Amino acid sequence: MNKRQTRSFALISTAIAAVVFLGMTVDSHRQFPTLTNAQQITPQVTRGKDVWHEYNCINCHTLFGEGAYYAPDLTKITQLRGAPYLTAFLKDPSKFYDEQRHRRLMPNLNLSDEEIAALIAFMDWVSKVDNQGWPPRPILVTGTSIPGMDLTVAQQNATGAGNQPPAARPVSDKEDPIALGEALFRTTATPVCSACHSIAPGVNLAGPTLAGLAVRARQVIASPDYKGKAKDVESFIRESIVAPSAYLHPGDMYSASGMSFMPDTFAKSLTPEQVDQLVAYLASFQ
């Protein structure tokens, strides 16, 4: 190839690359409104974005894989946890974590109710953006990054439980049932739910994962094969705890001869308040 041919090849290749780049740019901008759900950007979503930046959430968390990577990626958080859980967590993270025992974790930002609602609206909009699978390996939000977390000091103080099981008494105005339910889920004071059930999507242990439980519960209740008595998500979860054989999760590893492998003793070993708190916590899994 002589100099003239080399020059022509370089110019033509550059022109083709430029045309392809411009075409892809135009096509991307054409799809942006659909991919980003631009029509769903409400004043509350915009306010939530301002709250996100005002409190420098990105200094710890990531969205679409962009951020500090110190704390979990929150791109799809509202698809994993519902608004009640997120609201309770943002109001007072210390009910879910104890900084002295579990190192520095989520600080209490003292957000107002309006800021919390706006922030959740923003994150819900983010969760519905078609990010086409990015980031490929996000840090999963599982409620805690500390395996086997036991009852925190804050929760012990809140319940006055000491060495007793968490939530062993009715919930007062200052005791959030979701936080107490999470503590009960992980505590060693009762049969440990987390020993058999994962809360990460797609991770099945001795029992099926509880990720997406609320969605699956609605599907099961609507199914003609369901023979239980539950009419809504909360009653389905309660039934699954106290009468686990009322509905058998598909898969030979979870039941045999019409009986669930999950113990049927929780109706006696747990107080009604504890069952209520477990239901409140598990119903937050979207």
UniProtKB/TrEMBL annotation:
Keywords, A to Z, come to:
Electron transport, Heme, Iron, Metal-binding, Transport
Q: Which InterPro entries match?
A: Cyt_c-like_dom, Cyt_c-like_dom_sf, Cytochrome_c550/c551-like
Which GO molecular function annotations are given, in alphabetical order? electron transfer activity; heme binding; metal ion binding
Protein name as annotated: Cytochrome C
Q: Which residues form the Cytochrome c domain?
A: 43-127, 176-286
The answer to whether UniProt assigns keyword tRNA processing to this entry is no
PROSITE patterns of this UniProt entry?
CYTC (PS51007)
For the keyword Transmembrane, the answer is no
PANTHER family, alphabetized: CYTOCHROME C-553-LIKE
A Pfam family recorded for this sequence: Cytochrom_C
